[in-house]
User: Fold these one by one.
Assistant:
Number 1:
Amino acid sequence: MRNTPIKQLFYPFAFLTRAIIDLVYPPLCLLCEVRLAEGQEQICQPCLSSFVLLGKPHTEFSVPHDLYIHQAWALFDFDENVKNLIHHLKYSQRRKPILRLLDHFEKSILKQLPSEPYDLVLPIPLHPRKLRERGYNQVEDMARWLASRMGARVDQKIVVRSRYTQTQTKLNALERQKNLAGAFRIQGSPDLHNKRILLVDDVLTTGATSNTLAQVLEEQGCSQIDLLTLSTPRLSHA
Ligand SMILES: [Zn+2]
């Protein structure tokens, strides 16, 4: 007893506390709110299995001028589960469920993506004001998840969202493009010559935002800019 590390003495206590918390507040599935089985986290198995993974690159953009994105993927069908997950991710600080989803589909996701490594994975940046309000960029975790599995690095400092753009939901493609003019600028003097970049965002609506950023990156000499989003209503079958 005398040699037992103090931490070890608390193990039974911690275990008991956890058991009581679980009894009073049992961990529930984020999406269907059923009680999670032992060993499950964040999203239950039936909900995980109900996500529909889309299998190939798409070209579903609606931009009025040139397209600067070379290849694009939207991982999942834009169904209620995806909408729900993104809502929780953006508005109720629930950051872990998306990683649980990506882990569950890891093999199939990676099989779709190019084997040639990217130099950089860039989450589409939020304006600093928005970042302060939310406390985090909701696509940062997804970007890190992808980068770690594709042997790339994430850089969140290269690009700054320099203009606070008004909400774009009611604008048409041309208005969106105008609204975004000058929205991004490159910070410092990074060497982007011949670099392959993967942009990451949660939902693709028209593609105007990512295309504007892709144009800025191409002007810096990047050789290829691809885009991966979690989903897009443009491909939805729902
Ligand atoms: Zn569920």
Number 2:
Amino acid sequence: MAQRLSDWSYDTALDAAFQPCSVENWKSRQGGGFAFAGPPSTIVSSGEESSVYSINLPSDLTTNLLMLFRWVHFIAAITWIGLLYFFNLVNVPFMKEIDPVTKGKGLPALMSRALWWFRWGSVVTVVMGLAYWGSIVASDARNASASSAGAMASFFLIWTITWALMYACVIPGKGALDKGPVLAVIYVVLFTIASCLFLRFNDHGWESNRMLAIGIGGGMGWVMMLNVWGVIWRAQKKIILWTRDNAANSSPIPDRAKYLARQTFLMSRANFILSFPVLFLMGAASHYPMFGK
Ligand code: HEM
């Protein structure tokens, strides 16, 4: 009898379900019958028609919960990174072009709205990502009868220290440390060391490519979120307030605004550049084996 696609039982529903199904694989699962993908009327299996267009949602709670995490993770990441790209590619050059009066009126209204979505997008992205990654670490560790505590601890320790060092570099706000290319070189070295340390600490042989790729890419995402809350938002809320006051009551904008604006710019640019390796590693987790034994 023809078997429906969804009737196949995988060893681990999630892992195997992501593997592409070759014609051989299909044939063997069909008990030797031939099948190929095409319009519904041409889907043939063991001489009978098979309905590939019928919907059969997975019914177990874990699969559904993880899918929900993934989906929300994507939506939040699009919101966050979309705004990050808008700030870097559109808003920064635009703000340089407009006159101070228009800027005084427009900036507070635009930025307070945009930054609300931006900072909460970062939280939802990271929380959903961590929930998903936690399940990957737990299942890797369980399969090897090992503990996932070390991997989780190394993640938070390594990447939080990385962020602290990154932030420390922009605090002086003068000299070589105020120059973008100098900071870029320091950050490349810093993130390379952090990534190597993460791989070094999680080198027991049972860690999967998914676990390690997200351990590094997600770690960079964690750093980006700390930048959003710890640097960008902290500075921007003051700048917005001062700009609003200046437009309404002509109260002078403190000198410190320039320093904070520069710090925001540097961290926002760093996040913009970090988003490239993050997205590469997110995509590599399930589709490009490069880590692990
Ligand atoms: C800048 C922030 C982030 C962006 C833009 C981002 C984006 C993405 C994208 C596009 C995917 C889909 C990859 C695919 O299915 O091929 C993904 C998957 C995933 N992300 Fe993120 N992510 C970010 C941060 C994080 C963080 C902080 C974590 C947690 C530590 C995380 C954990 C995950 C996990 C576990 C997956 C599923 C990987 C798999 O199925 O093998 N992400 N992310």
Number 3:
Amino acid sequence: MTSNVPTLENPSYDNLKSADESHQMHGFGHPYMQKAPKSLIVFESGSGCKLKDVNGNEYIDCLAGITVSNLGHGREEIAKVAYEQMCRLEVASNQRNLTTQPAVQLCERLAELSKRCFGESFDGARVYLTVGGAEGIEAAYHLALRYWDKSGIMGSSSPGYWKKKKIISLRNCYHGSTFVPASLKPEFSDYGWHRLTEGWEDSKKEDNTLKFFSSIDAPHELFFNKNNIKKGENVGQAAARMLEERILEINADEVAAFIFEPVQGDGGAVSFHPDFFPLARQICDKYGVLMIADEIMAFGKTGKWFGMENYGVAPDIVVISKGISSGYLPMGAVIYRDRLWQTAMNSMSTKMMVSDIWQHDYTWSGHPTCCAVALKVLDIFERDGLIDQAAVRGRRFLEILKDKLQGLTLVKDVRGSGVMLGVDLTSDIASDVEMRMLLEKKIVLRASSNKHCLLMTPPIIMTDDEFSQAAEALKDILNSWGAFGSAAMAKPRQW
Ligand SMILES: Cc1ncc(COP(=O)(O)O)c(C=O)c1O
């Protein structure tokens, strides 16, 4: 029930909570989370790695906003850039032959960065600007389709390349909540391709040749079905073999792309066996399948600019977002090799017809204020050596986390790649832990959608002391659960 006094006139906690219950629908939310007494946290301000709510409580932000705020909260030097750009030119179109200075500069900078990190294959890389992650994935997929469509003689799809439309992903992934990204996650059933297959007979549902979106197990010991590992294979080799088998099962002529996160974020900071990506690269080259790296969360966090650098493998298309603006404004980008651009956008047929445009854009693509902020964030990353810091600080955070948590009954694994840290639990109680950490300990972290992992992505600038407090609090919560073992046993791991 909404109170009669608008929250603009009386923004007290009770008033805000009541209005929130009545009017706001939260992403990944459940009405219970909103309605339970005191369960709603209304943040009011942030500084460094701390957040404050409207009741004056202080929180340690181990989630960096929403896995974005690598540089921490409240930096005036970034806000100033936004202010100045807004005063100069807040927005202009970035469509067709229109653009702005910050948009061009950001594209140039990202192209240079990708060449620096991935080498010659990214020489002359092209950048399409977005403001978020899922829309970057949609654009990457659209670009892959266009690339295959134009891959025939003189930019035609005559040899049947138009058939290359299907896409393979990894289980336990998260690529976003719009239709294509949601379809890439087999565990999501409410929306996307899986919803459309409801009503299919069971035999068809399991038939990979009929599916537009199919997936294989992630190449990590805890996420791969061991029955599928052949004698003499490690998990990376087994997953690569399964990727090849899946391409052949579907028919290589119909597979457009393979998409993956270098480190699964929502999945619980899961990085992969080092053998997997080099083999996957060979397989994708052999069968003409584009590799799309979803670096939306990993960008700037793993101790390298791009997570894929950790495996020494260059993908074909890279999608980034989140940390590129450290959360100060929404921002994202799709970076792709010039080779793809030449075929997709500069083929003989396209050259002859101005009307052969790429039917894709977002109103906010290349927003000059967002671009100016992203440029400033990249400057700060370079100035303060924050990529190396992410590696150093991440190693320290992992040590602290292992020291506090390893050996606890409820803990199966503690892992990390830079400042992406994960705790794998023996029960499906991750959401309960998330709530208790927030409400009882005033620590922000996230439960994975697989229900048994916790994700922490602290700002790179977090201190040992702040992180230790968070780890200690997590130990307390998990230990208290140990004392009520039955509560945890009531939610055994489903997979
Ligand atoms: C790896 C990855 N891909 C895609 C997305 C979706 O990004 P957005 O929420 O900006 O659409 C996310 C968001 O958490 C993500 O972590």
Number 4:
Amino acid sequence: MAIREIVLIGNPVLRKKAKKIDRIIPLIKQLIDDMVATMYKAPGIGLAAPQVGVSKRVIVVDVGERLYKLINPKIVSSEGLETGTEGCLSVPGKVGEVERATNVVVKAMNTDGRYIKIEAGGFLAKCFQHEIDHLDGILYVDKATDIRDVFEEMEEELESVMYEDEIIEEESAHRMVKTFHEQDQTKAIFEL
Ligand SMILES: [Zn+2]
């Protein structure tokens, strides 16, 4: 398994419609293994092949329940609508509010070449929709409202809390914000 480079917004591969996979040749298995390693290393909770520069219909997702490795995934039905916060490894440092279906049924091929159906709700459903969008050249920023810098937001929140407590001096507040940046704590939560 190798860690691959994650391409960023502006790279044309992220805007291409990815190609369907007809046969699971060893090269595809290698791609999937590398994508899993790259996602966990980032860290992220989902990754689509175009994000590592490969325009093929493959996604990997792990929101903490189990790892999904899906080939030619397709949403076959969906219901409900809700808005939630999303980010993307290809759009670092930003988050936005995106309206997505609450529940989806995804049909896909697994790595053994068998067709499977997954019923997903909540965060997993959102993640599938985000990743499958990547395969059609769509980024969450195309659909999002209130796109904002995640670190600026954290900094503002932290500073307002700290300034309310007059015991903490301005200088030490800045130092704490800096430490928070370095720890990069929200990344894993948001980035897909
Ligand atoms: Zn993404």
